Amino acid sequence: MAFTSVGMDRLPGATSLARALLALERARATGVLEVRAARRSARLALVSGTPTAAVLDPDDGETLGDVLARDGALDREAHARALAEGAPSTPVGEWLVETGAATRPAVEYALRRQLRRRVGLLFGWSAAELSFRRGAADVGVPHVSEPVRTPDLVLGAMRDVVSETPVLVARRRLGDSVAVLSRLGAALLAEATLWPEEAAMVPLLERGAPVEVVLGAAGGSRRGILGLYALKLLSAVGSPGAGRGAYGVLLRKRRQLRHALGNDDLRLLDLPAGARPEDARRALRRLAHLVHPDRFGDHEAPAVRRASSEIMAALVQAEQRLAGR
User: Whole-model pTM?
Assistant: First the structure.
């Protein structure tokens, strides 16, 4: 279930929340994280840095019983009998177990699902103010006894945020630039449990690679596309700095060739009209320094090396035509 409209390239509120949660986990802090946005707020309980419960105002409208019923883990007849005898006198989870309406493992699983949903809603808020109060982690609702670690909770919540985004829409919003892990992304993915498709993308994202190549490592799968899109929304991946300019040139030249602009030798070599043969030679040397296959070693993805060889051959041919050879 998607918890937000994802018609944007970033979710600044999600980025701030993720950074705060990861910092609190590193500090093994215990207390309550308050999240305030326009006309809504939330309190997130943390024990030794790990989120264990969350309360939203206004409420998200989903009770623990709703989660259990959706999972097929609620004995409706036992639940009805228990309600007929009176309102719960203990926390709802304990009451459901005591009355036989649900098993303890089912309740614990439902509490984790409920917590992840509520954290997912927070990640969908476009902007929020955060404040942390150390001390008792009491927010008035049952805590998860076996909580999910923060990196897994963050990544899982972001997967939920994008879960209903059409794959073609997510792919278009990812664009064709170079993608590289940010510091936030490196910290998150170093500790989170990853799907195989996500794990396959990490080595490329660590050094930076074209989006198409990164997704190719994930087999172009739906999980890979939505996973990378979730990381982009979180600002866990972004565009590289100037030090990775070679990828930018590689992408630009490949687009020129694909759009039949490679027939324009001057444009392919980034030369103005009226350029002389010696200008073409200098341009070839400059571009070869950036896109020559030797620059992309065996550690690079095959698609990068193939593109480099293709572009280098086209540049050499363009220089030869301009030189009259």
Answer: 0.70
For tokens 């930076």, name the residue: 208
Q: Which helix (H) or strand (E) holds 283?
A: helix 277-291
Q: Measured at the alpha carbon of residue 132, what is the angle toward residues 127 and 133, in degrees to the nearest 5?
A: 150
Given a contact cutoff of 8 angstroms between Cβ atoms, the answer to whether 65 and 92 are in contact is yes
Calpha distance 160→14 (Å, rounded): 13
The DSSP result for 223-267, as a single string, is: HHHHHHHHHHHTTSEE---GGGHHHHHHHHHHHHHHTTGGG-HHH
User: Are residues 61 and 48 in contact, defined by beta-carbon separation less than 8 angstroms?
Assistant: no
The amino acid that residue 86 corresponds to is G
Encode pLDDT of 27-72 as tens digits: 999 999 999 988 899 999 999 999 999 999 998 878 888 888 888 8
Match 């309600």 to its residue by tokens.
83
| Token duo for residue 179 | 């993608």
Nearest to 228 by CA among 3, 1, 9: 9
Tokens of 54: 């969350």
Closest by CA to 39, choosing from 26, 56, 21, is: 56
